[in-house]
């Protein structure tokens, strides 16, 4: 019984931290902060990508707090973070984002890695294979 409670506590902490990572960047995306504009301009997705991805991250961050939907949020987050990491690695954006002589020290990249790892752990805990079957309407 204690073991099960321990896993649920760890699971909840992973959900909270991942949601915070997603939600804490929304102010920068939606307010038009120069760093957010730089990031999305560099990858060719300004302004529609900034607003679109921000909206998806907002919805996903909320889903992490809903008991029956956090599993879907972990899948969405993994997809978003794979995209973010990919853009950092294959575009001029780079791992360390610099704009107007200011460096983020790799913080955005580190948060994307953290959210990806946590969402993958959560997907494992949610038994993603069954989750995908349910989404596709197939029986086990």
From TrEMBL:
Membrane topology: Multi-pass membrane protein
Coiled-coil zones: none
Subcellular location: Membrane
Principal location: membrane
Alphabetical list of InterPro entries matching this protein: DoxX
The entry's keywords: Membrane, Transmembrane, Transmembrane helix
Transmembrane segments: 12-28, 48-66, 73-96, 108-126
Top-rank taxon: Bacteria
Pfam families hit by this protein: DoxX
Protein name per Swiss-Prot or TrEMBL: DoxX family protein
């Amino acid at each position: 019984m204690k073991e099960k409670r321990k896993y649920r506590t760890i699971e909840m902490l992973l959900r909270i931290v991942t949601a915070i990572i997603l939600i804490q960047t929304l102010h920068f995306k939606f307010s038009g902060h120069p760093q957010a504009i730089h990031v999305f301009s560099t990858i060719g997705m300004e302004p529609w990508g900034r607003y679109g991805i921000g909206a998806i991250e907002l919805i996903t961050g909320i889903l992490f707090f809903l008991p029956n939907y956090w599993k879907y949020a972990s899948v969405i987050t993994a997809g978003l973070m794979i995209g973010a990491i990919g853009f950092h690695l294959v575009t001029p954006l780079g791992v360390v984002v610099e704009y107007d002589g200011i460096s983020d020290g790799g913080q955005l990249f580190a948060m994307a890695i953290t959210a990806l790892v946590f969402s993958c752990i959560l997907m494992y805990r949610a038994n993603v294979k069954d989750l995908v079957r349910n989404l596709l309407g197939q029986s086990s």
